[in-house]
Amino acid sequence: MDRKDFLKMSGGAALGMALASCGAGGKSTGNRGTIKNLGIQLYSLRDDLPKDPKGVLKKLASFGYKEIESYEGANGMFWGMSNTDFKKYMDSLGLTIVSSHCDHKKDFERKAAEAGAIGMKYLICPWLGKQRRLDDYKKAAEDFNKAGEICQKNGIRFAYHNHDYSFRVQDTQYPQDILMKNTDPALVDFEMDMYWVVTAGQDPIEWMKKYKWRFKLCHIKDRKKDTPFKEGEPNQSCIVGKGSIDYKPILAQAKNLGMQRYILEQEAYEKAPLDCVKEGAAYLNNLVF
Prior knowledge:
By secondary structure, this protein is an alpha/beta fold.
């Protein structure tokens, strides 16, 4: 399934609370920092990338990105190249492919072997979808553990990338709690998409505190100012630094709570996609927190 088909959101009544807690809950400990190796999810350039993979990657390097998170397009995670050829080209640009989103239920042994062979760190499930029953999330957690075992054999790790549905109460529980509690920390990590956490009315800092060292990667994208949360709303993301999510307090605490990889993702566009991610890189590479 194309990710564009299922990136549909539902609203949350706690918009003001979420944004306020993100801004107030993360006071710096005094250790000011910056993002050392900014990454980008290639889905951000989903229209441009298939036309000229090498050209797009070259531009991303020039914008100041250092790490790449791929996804499975029509030509696979390596965009028509072999895994080794892709790595060689990345090396020539000063880029590192650290992770990729992929379908962990299809030919996963091969994907894990190819990823491990070139020194990638993660393969990631990008989407689960809202399940009908809470037990279905437990079954998903079992599947994640099995995928984690396959990754472990190949010297990499497995992770799950959230959307808003797992951070919304369902039958008195948060599905995210079920996924966290039923996955083996030795096998499964989590990639926190902070935009979706905020969209669900939740505080990223509090969840990182609750499950310290489980969220190892994050997606950074901003949310348009003064946009009400409505069920089924279109994507409200915008260029990072121009929206309503205050990333300084969040990032000030993230590292001490286990965060290791910081990855920009651009889902909606206010101008040409390459221009959006160029501005995002300039903002995040100069952000001191």
